[in-house]
């Protein structure tokens, strides 16, 4: 019966629920009975012939494995399905970990079940399992592969959640120990640890009843942050500002009990949120990067706009954050990557959260800093040497990177498009700029945000934010924009000398006489180019529990594709960016590649044959260089051809240099001709060696054995060029491989030679 249940697809947990047992007991029962899954290859060739792929899956509906298990590879757990809170950032981390392991010669086993990811490409890992990231399946793969260890830190929160259960089943977790991961995840343990190392944190408490929650909130004072225990990406979190709000939230969000407690923390208003990504080895921090949030604390870090290097942080604040991060890394004995979120106000810092895993900001940080944090973390986890980053972690980059969120509110019917403690973004875009303003406006445009041309609508809720926005609104007016505003905002701006046109969200828009005052019609008819809506404190969860005018107009902006800004800090940054960089061009700062990119002024001809290169007074150098320039070559590799000889010794070199200096019309370098006798006589003034096999190019090599000696004697930083063909070419390529050096082949004219080179 148990075998039949497994063949029908029931998990151990489902079976345990049905028989009032637990998952591990069912697993023990199953393995004792010899009921284990088989590994099969996914058929990618429609059964035309046997499939030989590393696409694997596990099934109970089989009698044998399709593969053998001798690699004992390292398992890397992916992030699974893309959803809000877990997206492509973690897949980047998993891929970088795999590539680092493979570069070290370590066999890899990737476990993921999302075909949209790069980690599930056939050529990324040695073995790829399309399987769920859960305790049962990871144990199955670990045992059947006899894996040498598991990397759980790259897949986000999902793999982290099974770290301790895996450890209890004797799975070797690479990197930070699962007990320490549990310490960081468990609020009681983590809070006690912070107290012991003298690192501050907001007041908090886990509560199991309405009365306890109310008493705690009255004690610490409103506002407070309320959330159920163990949530992903801020799910069901909210900031509440009064006892009525608290009762409303707890009544809607969760049934508070001992089995379902809520965590309530003191919410610190107008505090700056700061992101710290770090790498440690055996508790010693070897790399750290501080990033700055544009929005104040209260916006989920996944929805926040991130600036690197930080532009507005006090050096003392940064110093305290670095010290606190080092203390936490040491206390948790971290090996690998970790991420900490801080809030700062008046140069005092407090820890919000610590994650002993890769963070969604690490791809951005790695790109901006040009330091692969995941490579460092992976090397640390495997025990490979890790070089500490310089003490001053922020180089003089000459540019600023900004990461902005990408939202999909147009596809989320009814969702209120405002930023809050519950994550809502479905992607992100990062751009570079000479300053934060240029980087920000480029990043916004990259998300599909349309810059305003003429009309901007303002609706600002609180008096405090009206005052804060006043200079920015005046700046918009000075830029020539037509300003519209709702009633309260219009009155305030008029009182402060800013002319605006009044609009109102009318209940009935049928009266044509009212259309000129109708906010709804202006939005619906695309008469507004930008809507800056700054609501009063959001006291309800994002799916609006009541329909306000502000909510309706925000939804209209989304539904009619009107650009919308709902955060005061983002609004101010945007206005300044618009004033400074409304027109911008793509520049060299806008792209960064993993590989070194060399920009050349023109084409290079590496084999420019000059008959009289070593003949005194010859004008051949002049003629060939002129022809090269007219053909688009700005540099030539000058070498001799035929009789007389090319550059083969000191005397011919001196003549060639004199001819080049007096007659060359473009940049050039000289190639020494190999002639059997000069294998141990490399000329310093030449930049390449030419090994001729064709008599046209000079005295040809009689056989490849004569050329072999040059591969061991010629300087490794100087080029080797040859015109070998056929079997000679095959031998030359073998020599190049044996000596681990590159070789340039010229005059390729046959399909067979091209196949050899490929």
From TrEMBL:
GO terms for molecular function: aspartate carbamoyltransferase activity; ATP binding; carbamoyl-phosphate synthase (ammonia) activity; carbamoyl-phosphate synthase (glutamine-hydrolyzing) activity; dihydroorotase activity; metal ion binding. Residues 191-382 form the ATP-grasp domain. It is an enzyme of class 6 (ligase). PROSITE patterns: ATP_GRASP (PS50975), CPSASE_1 (PS00866), CPSASE_2 (PS00867), MGS (PS51855). Its EC number is 6.3.4.16. GO terms for biological process: 'de novo' pyrimidine nucleobase biosynthetic process; citrulline biosynthetic process; glutamine metabolic process; UTP biosynthetic process. InterPro entries: ATP-grasp, ATP_grasp_subdomain_1, CarbamoylP_synth_lsu_oligo_sf, CPAse_ATP-bd, CPSase_dom, CPSase_lsu_oligo, CPSase_preATP-grasp, Metal_Hydrolase. It catalyses: hydrogencarbonate + NH4(+) + 2 ATP = carbamoyl phosphate + 2 ADP + phosphate + 2 H(+). Keywords: ATP-binding, Ligase, Nucleotide-binding, Repeat. Pfam families: CPSase_L_D1, CPSase_L_D2, MGS. Residues 449-598 form the MGS-like domain. It comes from the Eukaryota. GO terms for cellular component: cytosol. NCBIfam families: PRK05294.1. This is carbamoyl-phosphate synthase (ammonia). It comes from Mortierella hygrophila.
């Amino acid at each position: 019966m148990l075998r039949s249940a497994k063949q029908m697809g029931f998990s151990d947990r489902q079976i345990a629920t049905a028989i009032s047992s637990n998952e591990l007991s069912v697993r023990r029962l199953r393995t004792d009975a010899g009921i284990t899954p088989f590994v099969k290859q996914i058929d990618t060739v429609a059964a035309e012939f046997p499939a030989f792929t590393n696409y694997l899956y596990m099934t109970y509906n089989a009698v044998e494995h399709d593969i053998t298990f001798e690699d004992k590879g390292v398992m890397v757990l992916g992030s699974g399905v893309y959803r809000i809170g877990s997206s492509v950032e973690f897949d980047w981390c998993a891929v970088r970990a795999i590539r680092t392991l493979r570069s070290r010669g370590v066999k890899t086993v990737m476990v993921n079940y999302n075909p949209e990811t790069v980690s599930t490409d056939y050529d990324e890992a040695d073995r790829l399992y399309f399987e769920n990231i859960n305790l049962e399946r990871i144990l199955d793969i670990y045992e059947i592969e006899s894996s040498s260890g598991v990397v759980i830190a790259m897949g986000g929160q999902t793999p982290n959640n099974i770290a301790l259960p895996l450890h209890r089943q004797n799975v070797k977790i690479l990197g930070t120990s699962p007990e320490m991961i549990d310490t960081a995840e468990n609020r009681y343990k983590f809070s006690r640890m912070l107290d012991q190392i003298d690192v501050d944190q907001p007041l908090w408490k886990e509560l199991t009843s309405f009365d306890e929650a109310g008493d705690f909130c009255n004690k610490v004072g409103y506002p407070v942050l309320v959330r159920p225990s163990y949530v992903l990406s801020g799910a069901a979190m909210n900031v509440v500002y009064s006892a009525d709000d608290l009762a409303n939230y707890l009544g809607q969000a969760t049934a508070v009990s001992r089995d379902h407690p809520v965590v309530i923390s003191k919410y610190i208003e107008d505090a700056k949120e700061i992101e710290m990504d770090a790498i440690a080895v055996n508790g010693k921090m070897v790399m750290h990067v501080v990033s700055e949030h544009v929005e104040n604390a209260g916006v989920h870090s996944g929805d926040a706009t991130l600036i690197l290097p930080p532009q507005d942080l006090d050096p003392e604040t940064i110093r305290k954050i670095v010290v606190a991060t080092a203390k936490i890394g040491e206390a948790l004995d971290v090996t690998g990557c970790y991420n900490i979120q801080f809030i700062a106000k008046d140069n005092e810092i407090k820890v919000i959260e610590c994650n002993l895993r890769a963070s969604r900001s690490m791809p951005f940080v790695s790109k901006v800093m040009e330091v692969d944090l995941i490579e460092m973390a992976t090397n640390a986890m495997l025990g490979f040497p890790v070089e500490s980053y310089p003490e001053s972690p922020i180089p003089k980059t000459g540019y600023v990177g900004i990461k902005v969120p990408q939202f999909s509110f147009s596809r989320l019917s009814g969702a209120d498009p405002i930023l809050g403690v519950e994550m809502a973004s479905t992607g992100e875009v990062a751009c570079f700029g000479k300053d934060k303003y240029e980087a920000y406006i480029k990043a916004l445009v990259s998300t599909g945000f349309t810059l305003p041309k003429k009309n901007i609508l303002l609706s600002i809720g609180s008096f405090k934010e009206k005052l804060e926005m006043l200079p920015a609104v005046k700046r918009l007016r000075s830029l020539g924009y037509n300003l519209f505003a709702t009633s309260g905002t219009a009155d305030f701006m008029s009182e402060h000398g800013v002319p605006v046109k009044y609009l109102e969200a009318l209940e009935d828009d049928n009266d044509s006489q009212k259309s000129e005052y109708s906010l709804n019609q202006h939005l619906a008819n695309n008469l507004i180019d930008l809507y800056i809506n700054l609501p009063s404190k959001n006291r309800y969860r994002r799916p609006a529990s009541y329909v306000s005018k502000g909510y309706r107009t925000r939804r209209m902006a989304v539904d009619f594709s009107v650009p919308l800004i709902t955060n005061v800090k983002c609004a101010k940054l945007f206005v300044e960016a618009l004033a400074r960089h409304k027109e911008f061009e793509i520049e060299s700062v806008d792209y960064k590649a993993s590989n070194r990119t060399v920009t050349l002024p023109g084409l290079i001809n590496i084999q420019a044959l000059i008959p009289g290169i070593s003949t005194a007074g010859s004008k051949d150098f002049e003629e060939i260089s002129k022809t090269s320039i007219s053909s688009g070559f700005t540099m030539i590799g000058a070498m001799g051809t035929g009789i007389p000889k090319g550059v083969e010794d000191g005397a011919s070199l001196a003549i060639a240099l004199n001819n080049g200096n007096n007659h060359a019309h473009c940049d050039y370098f000289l190639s020494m001709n190999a002639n059997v006798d000069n294998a141990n006589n490399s000329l310093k003034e030449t930049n390449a060696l030419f090994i001729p096999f064709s008599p046209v190019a000079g005295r040809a090599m009689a056989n490849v054995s004569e050329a072999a000696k040059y591969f061991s004697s010629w300087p490794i930083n100087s080029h080797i060029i040859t015109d070998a063909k056929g079997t000679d070419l095959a031998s030359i390529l073998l020599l190049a491989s044996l000596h681990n050096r590159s070789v340039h082949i010229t005059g390729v004219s046959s399909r067979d030679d091209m196949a050899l080179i490929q």
